[in-house]
Amino acid sequence: MQKKPVTLKTIYNRHKEHRNDNSIKDPVLFISRYDDDRDKEIVGFLASQFAYGKIEIFRTFLEKLFGLMGASPYSFIRKGDFSGVRGLYYRFQKDKDIILLLETLQRIFDEFGGIGAMMKNYYRGDTREALWAVREHLFPGSEALTFFFPKPSRTNPLKRWHLYLRWMVRKDAIDAGLWDFIDRRDLTMPLDTHIFKIGRCAGWTRQRTPSYKAACDITEAMKALSPDDPLKYDLFLCHAIGIGAGCTGRRTPACKDRCLLYGTIKGSR
User: Cα(62)–Cα(46) distance, rounded to whole angstroms?
Assistant: First the structure.
């Protein structure tokens, strides 16, 4: 009797049975600490936007930031006293940048009632176009906070925004699924360095740099595997393969012993 081929879905399901979600050092888990959807939306936004660099370092920063915001980040934003944030910084973002970002969140809630309501106001089927419209509304003719609200670019993969969108749109044991105006089938893969390397190794993209085109290539590959939920495997790939197996983006003999996907990718046998 011929054995069924081992697929990404098979490996994912096996891994999921033994996975302890609380052991995953992913910023999405900050959201689960809160019950109020308004808190979740704010915490998710901040956690995703500062999710760059070494995970241990940005998690430490986020712990400090959320500690300063207290039990209700929403109440903290609404009160508008951000003096306690002075002296706090993370890599390129100084305290004045963080305070301006918090002031911008306050403005968003004042004008729209929430980040999701703001995105919904501008969403016409393309999340990038919606984000660029948000940028124009918040910062017309300004260079302020381009790191958090990027200017239009055809090459920027928008990794942190696509990560936030995954958390807000998808609904499962980890992702919050607060927004219903975007179909999860229309999400784009958050292209961090791990997903890009895996995508290159698996032949899901031929792009040489982590561009928006590379993100779209990998998203299309995921749609072939999970048409109704293309970002289903994002967390698994990032942590179990990218971080856990130390994927370098190149197939080597060492991959056989440490990569769960070994043998499922063309040319890896």
Answer: 8
The type of residue at 18 is H
Rg (CA), the chain: 19
Report pTM: 0.91
State how far Cα 224 lies from the chain centre: 21
- Residue 221's Cα: distance from chain center in Å? 18
**How far is it between the farthest Cα atoms of the chain?**
69
For 200-254, the pLDDT digits (tens) are 988 999 999 999 999 999 999 999 999 999 999 999 898 887 777 677 777 777 7
Handedness of CA 229, 235, 238, 244 (dihedral sign): negative
Contacts of residue 247, defined as CB under 8 A and 6 or more positions apart, other chains included, come to 194, 197, 198, 201, 241, 259
What span, in angstroms and rounded, lies between the C-alpha atoms of 126 and 75? 31
What kind and span of H or E run contains 74? helix 73-79
Q: Which residues contact 102 (CB under 8 A, 6 or more apart)?
A: 77, 82, 85
Note whether 134 and 118 are within 8 A (CB): yes
**Residue with token string 């219903």:** 180
